[in-house]
Design brief:
Order of helices and strands: EHHEHEHEHEEHEHEHEHEEHH
Number of helices: 11
Strand content: 15-25%
Number of domains: 2
Structural class: alpha/beta
Radius of gyration: 19 Å
CATH topology of the largest domain: D-Maltodextrin-Binding Protein, domain 2
Number of strands: 11
Length: about 350
């Protein structure tokens, strides 16, 4: 999807004051009606028709091998766990959580690749998912019915928190020889801002607006497709939000010369003033091939969410399995701890999580 953007304001000016105190504690995405769902289904069907049938089969088999079906023990439940795109951090991290939960509880996790935070909040609100990974800013907007258009005056009242996990770092990627050295240089550029309606898109538009970038061509795809567009020279820049290192960015950097556009100085200060749920962050030099220096940017916080219809005991068992066994993580292991699991929590805890954390 391509559209010309002219100073659109996706983030409401009101309703975020109560979140200001959270910003100092934090370090990656709801359809309101069936028509929106149908439109997304149609888009997905159109994309599928463009793919070779053999490729589709191979992709499905690969995904099954990576995540696998839910494997509950006797007396356990199959729990729907909604993650994110396969090129981000949510999906592989959810695979590790699946392994931990299935080893330490009788329950099985059915992990599903999705458009991430905004889509996942909708799934929780409709009780189509039992657990999901979402961004903490999106959780706040959804629970309070404010902040972005999808949630205005339509709060997701059954949304509940489990734990926060790690910083979701904003990456702005371009080709090394693009001449784009700052956010201001994106004026007039073609930019992939993430899946339509995703938390990534919300973050990208907020940064561009805060930086005064008023005129650009917006494209919307998942992370892997955005990386392909950078590789092929089809766009000038892409915004990807996820805990570094993000798999799709690692893969791109291993074959192409890329650069990360910093969000720093006055722009970073303006972003924090306009979006108080964001915090300063840095992508360390050496995280991606060819990028040796630290890159200043901003971040939100990844978190586990659920809904109030999930049994208290199940939520407590899943929470206990994850946070009693954090040594089994290989992804974001330095960030996922009991001590920080409530930092930046913007919504009410589920009673099962509250029972574990005390």
């Amino acid at each position: 999807m391509v559209q010309r953007i002219k100073r659109r304001r996706f983030i409401a000016a009101t309703g975020v004051a109560g979140f200001a105190g959270i910003a100092g504690c934090i370090g990656e995405d709801v359809d309101d009606d069936a028509a929106d769902d149908d439109e997304e289904m149609d888009d997905a069907d159109d994309d599928a028709e463009m793919d070779d049938d053999t490729d589709d089969t191979d992709d499905e088999e690969e995904e099954a091998e990576e995540i696998g079906d839910a494997e509950p023990d006797e007396g356990g439940e199959v729990l729907a766990w909604h993650a994110g795109g396969t090129g981000g951090t949510y999906y592989p991290l959810s695979g590790e959580m699946k392994s931990i939960v299935e080893e330490h509880t009788p329950h099985g996790l059915q992990v599903q690749s999705t458009g991430a935070s905004v889509e996942n909040v909708g799934s929780l609100g409709r009780e189509e998912a039992d657990f999901a990974l979402i961004q903490n800013d999106i959780a706040f907007f959804a629970a309070n019915g404010t902040g972005i258009e999808d949630f205005e005056d339509e709060p997701i009242e059954n949304l509940r928190g489990v734990a926060t996990l790690y910083p979701e770092t904003i990456h702005i990627i371009t080709q090394e020889d693009s001449g784009i050295d700052s956010v201001a240089d994106l004026e007039g550029a073609s930019i992939n801002t993430g899946d339509l309606g995703s938390g990534t898109q919300v973050n990208a538009l907020q940064i561009l607006e805060s930086a005064g970038v008023e005129d650009f061509d917006e494209q919307n795809t998942d992370f892997a497709s955005a990386a392909d567009q950078i590789r092929d020279g089809d766009i000038d820049a892409a915004v990807i939000v996820g805990g570094w290192p993000v798999g799709s960015v690692e893969e791109l950097a291993s074959t192409e010369d890329i650069a990360l556009v910093p969000v720093d100085g006055d722009v970073r200060e303006a972003v924090r003033d306009d979006a108080e749920w964001m915090a300063d962050d840095t992508i360390p030099g050496g995280t991606y091939d060819g990028i040796d220096d630290d890159v200043d940017t901003v971040s939100v916080q990844a978190m586990i969410a659920t809904h109030d219809g999930v049994d208290d005991e199940i939520v407590e068992e899943v929470t206990m399995a994850i946070f009693d066994n954090t040594d089994q993580f290989s992804i974001k292991a330095d960030f996922i701890t009991v001590d920080t699991a409530q930092d930046g929590m913007p919504i009410d805890l589920h009673p099962g999580a509250e029972a574990y954390f005390g």
